């Protein structure tokens, strides 16, 4: 499925966020701060069917990947990889050079996509001061980072 997948991303605006919130809660992911400034979230569709949600926070040239959620019937079919590529490209278009994330369940997936495990204390100050780092994610969450490629910025 992954090779010919045409994932469409639609930015989520204020009134459209309830389905996203519901998906986050169902996946046991934090939703308390999604309306704060500096966040960009998307609903992803494939053939007009919602398959995922996700987005990022912008902190200068660093970004924090946020809450990538794939609808259960589309997992293990390449949707997560395709959605992550779109999110990374959109972040790079906005000048983000390095992506950071915290995960309690998906470190294997992100390692396969080029993210490296780092000490949580090594995060840049703007990233370590985010709501995610300060309390929304548990201290046991794995901190990972990836430089976004020059190709993603085009």
From TrEMBL:
<dbReference type="InterPro" id="IPR000182">
    <property type="entry name" value="GNAT_dom"/>
</dbReference>
<dbReference type="Pfam" id="PF13508">
    <property type="entry name" value="Acetyltransf_7"/>
</dbReference>
<dbReference type="GO" id="GO:0016747">
    <property type="term" value="F:acyltransferase activity, transferring groups other than amino-acyl groups"/>
</dbReference>
<protein>
    <submittedName>
        <fullName>GNAT family N-acetyltransferase</fullName>
    </submittedName>
</protein>
<keyword id="KW-0808">Transferase</keyword>
<dbReference type="InterPro" id="IPR016181">
    <property type="entry name" value="Acyl_CoA_acyltransferase"/>
</dbReference>
<feature type="domain" description="N-acetyltransferase">
    <location>
        <begin position="4"/>
        <end position="149"/>
    </location>
</feature>
